[in-house]
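[Discussion] Sanity-checking designs against the backbone

I'm trying to build intuition for which residues belong where. Below is a C-alpha cell string of 196 positions. I'd appreciate it if someone posts a full sequence so I can compare it with mine line by line.
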C-alpha cells in the first residue's frame, strides 16, 4: 500500500505559491478596509511597496528611456559646455606652466642650517602635491565635460544614466555636465557615504 504522505495531491500549493496567495490576500484586505477608492489605491500601493522591500533605482527599459535634448533646447547647454571646456583647458595649461617654473627653481641652499633646509624641502613638496591634486581635479572636470559633449552628439544629453528619465533643466543649468538626476545622485551619495 503506497504511503499517503508521499503522494502529491493535485492542487497542493508550493511554499512560493502560498506566499504569493497570502500577499494577494493581504493586498485585497487592505483595499477593502479603506474607506474610499482613492484610499484603497494608496493602501494597496503602500502594501505592495512594503512587501517588495527597499526601493532601488531600476534599470530603465529601452522604451522607458527619455529622449535627450536636441535642436534649440540643446544649444544653450552646448555653449556652456564648450565655454567650460575652453576655460578648463586654459586652466590646465596655466597649471602646467606653473609646474614647470617650480621644477626649474634651484634646490634649497645647503649652506644654511639643517632645519631650514628641511622646512624648505617640505614646503616645496607640499606645493608640488597641492598643484598635482588641483591639476587632477581639473582633469576630472574636463573629462566630465567631454563626456557631456559626447552624450550631446549621441542624442542622450539630458537623460539620467541611472533611471533613464529626463534631468531637470534647473540642474542642467547649474551643472551642465550632470549625468544623473537629483534622486539618482542622492542615492549614489548615500551609497558612497555607507561604504566609507
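Best answer:
Here's mine. Compare freely.
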Amino acid at each position: 500500500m503506497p504511503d499517503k504522505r508521499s503522494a502529491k495531491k493535485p492542487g497542493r500549493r508550493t511554499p512560493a505559491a502560498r506566499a504569493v496567495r497570502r500577499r494577494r490576500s493581504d493586498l485585497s484586505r487592505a483595499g477593502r478596509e479603506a474607506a474610499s477608492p482613492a484610499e484603497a489605491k494608496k493602501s494597496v500601493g503602500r502594501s505592495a511597496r512594503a512587501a517588495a522591500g527597499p526601493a532601488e533605482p531600476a534599470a530603465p527599459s529601452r522604451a522607458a528611456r527619455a529622449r535627450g535634448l536636441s535642436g534649440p533646447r540643446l544649444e544653450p547647454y552646448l555653449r556652456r559646455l564648450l565655454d567650460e571646456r575652453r576655460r578648463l583647458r586654459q586652466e590646465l595649461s596655466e597649471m602646467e606652466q606653473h609646474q614647470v617654473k617650480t621644477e626649474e627653481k634651484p634646490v634649497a641652499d645647503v649652506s644654511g642650517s639643517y632645519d631650514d633646509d628641511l622646512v624648505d624641502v617640505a614646503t616645496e613638496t607640499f606645493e608640488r602635491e597641492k598643484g598635482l591634486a588641483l591639476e587632477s581635479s581639473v582633469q576630472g572636470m574636463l573629462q566630465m565635460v567631454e563626456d557631456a559633449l559626447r552624450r550631446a552628439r549621441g542624442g542622450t544629453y539630458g537623460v539620467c544614466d541611472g533611471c533613464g528619465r529626463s534631468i531637470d533643466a534647473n540642474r542642467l543649468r547649474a551643472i551642465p555636465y550632470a549625468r544623473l538626476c537629483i534622486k539618482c545622485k542622492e542615492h549614489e551619495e548615500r551609497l558612497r557615504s555607507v561604504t566609507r
